[in-house]
Amino acid sequence: MDDSKNTFEKIYDVVKQIPKGQVATYGQVAALAGNRRWARVVGYALHVNPDSGQIPCYRVVTKDGNVSDAFAFGGANRQAELLSAEGITFVDGRVDMKKHQWEVPWL
Question: Could you tell me which CATH number the domain at 7-100 has?
Fold first, then answer.
């Protein structure tokens, strides 16, 4: 990662890489952005996402597969709709993480 980028830019760069049909956890994004302790910061960054068309923040969920009640672009139901539209499946209201979690080989 380019050290001249600010934290939110690093987070957005990671989120842009999450493949369609997969999700990442806040912790995964934090680690890939440079600091495993930034999970909450990831949430803040996604809440103020400047370009939801290019930065697919809806692909970020909790480690348990829960969508965000505070999803900034329409709430939890909208986030679940966007994920379902990409073929992501849910079990008991949570993303099926075994099936859909983005596997990053270098993490």
Answer: 1.10.10.10
Instruction: Please state, in angstroms and rounded to a whole number, the distance separating the CA atoms of residues 76 and 85.
Output: 14
Whether residue 69 lies in the annotated active site: no
48 CB contacts (<8 Å, ≥6 apart)?
Answer: 8, 72
For residue 66, what are the contacts with CB-CB under 8 A and spacing of at least 6?
Answer: 93, 94, 95
CA distance 62 to 70: 12
Tell me the per-residue pLDDT of 50-71, one tens digit each, with 9 for 90 and over: 998 999 999 999 999 999 887 8
Contact (CB, 8 A) for 18 and 56 = yes
Q: Are 67 and 35 within 8 A, CB to CB?
A: no
Domain boundaries in the chain? 7-100
User: Which one from 57, 80, 82, 95 is the annotated catalytic residue?
Assistant: 57
